[in-house]
Amino acid sequence: MDRAALGAHEQHAVDLERDEVLEQLAPRSRGIDARRLFAGLDLGDEQLAAVLDDVVCPELEVLRQPMEDGVVTLSRAAVSLTYPARFMLAAAMNPCPCGYFGDPLHSCRCGPLSIERYRSRISGPLLDRIDIHLEVPAVAYGDLVGTQSDETSAAIRIRVQRARAVQRARFQGQRGVHANAHMTARDLRRHCRLSGAVEAVLKQAVTRLGLSARAYHRVLKIARTIADLAGSAELTTAHVSEAIQYRSLDRKREFVGEGR
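Request: output the structure for the sequence above.
Response:
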């Protein structure tokens, strides 16, 4: 966008409501300083963040198919091609616009609606496809300088190798399935049999957190892996409860929704 066109958009933005500003300018805002783009609205830092937080990131949404199916399909007028695209995604984000939501030492300046807008930039369907959500709090000084470790990397490596060997044996001869993450709904029913106690824990989590069917299946896959790492053939309430704890964004959504 050239300077003259940018200036025209800025002048026009003065008379627009906030939602109209998003509709008119957000699609054109890539690569432009946000302060210049919204200068006519006289927004403070937090207000500017709130406006930008409503701009969803469509580029991330294209990850949904490869994350779900392990393939990417390119369709054109005369041909459609499918390529393998199974990968491991690692992503990071702040808990809120100011970065201090849930921090025990700093006060968060963001209201529930601001936090919800910020997190809604990543859609629910995309979050459902991310197996593990973890909070990473600031590291305490004692942990930074401490030398004691509960478990060495070598010991962890041995446990992981054993768990992978169990999974290879479990899916031997099953095309396209090599690990718990690849299990279909039929595989889950076969390899993740639930006792009454385990089913009660899952039912409570689904009801309380509003988990989708996809998130429910991912909880089961993670619980199956936790059991494999522990050398357990059966799923227990401890395995399932730990897997549910790894859906922190689902738990945070419920937490923010209650306004706490």
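Residues 146 and 255 are 33 Å apart (CA to CA).
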